[in-house]
């Protein structure tokens, strides 16, 4: 799904114009980027958390020459899905309803 597809879907759902929906979505994404740039994390309950993961400097290797080169430290934006998000994407067997029981069969049934 592209940003344009998302704008179309949200605009139809909330009954706003596409231009208004695009402006709201753009400002929302900009606010997340601004918070990350300021070193803050953004937590959306039930959805997930955007945060920076700091990578330490390390030595790399040029594959063509084999020369060792320094790779500087950097901060990488990451997203961690919340529990509700994970359940919607990959429901657990118990939440799916109708899943087979994981209890071992009763060996005494049918005897006697």
Fold blueprint:
Layout: H1 3-14, H2 18-37, E1 42-44, E2 48-55, E3 58-61, E4 68-71, E5 74-81, H3 83-89, H4 93-96
Antiparallel strand pairs: 1-2, 2-5, 3-4
What would the keywords be for this entry?
two-stranded antiparallel ribbon; extended; HU Protein, Chain A; alpha+beta; three-stranded antiparallel β-sheet; 2 domains
Count of individual helical segments: 4
Largest sheet: 3 strands, antiparallel
Overall outline: extended
CATH topology tier name of the largest domain = HU Protein, Chain A
Number of strands: 5
Spell out the helices and strands N to C.
Answer: HHEEEEEHH
Q: Which segments are poorly predicted (pLDDT under 50) over 5 or more consecutive residues? A: none
Number of spatially distinct domains = 2
Helix content: 25-40%
SS-derived structural category: alpha+beta
Radius of gyration, in Å, reads: 24 Å
CATH architecture of the largest domain: Irregular
Q: What gap, in angstroms, lies between the N and C termini?
A: 60 Å
Instruction: Provide mean pLDDT, rounded.
Output: 87
- In the CATH scheme, the class of the largest domain would be Few Secondary Structures
CATH superfamily of the largest domain: IHF-like DNA-binding proteins
Strand ordering within the main sheet: 1-2-5
Beta fraction:
15-25%
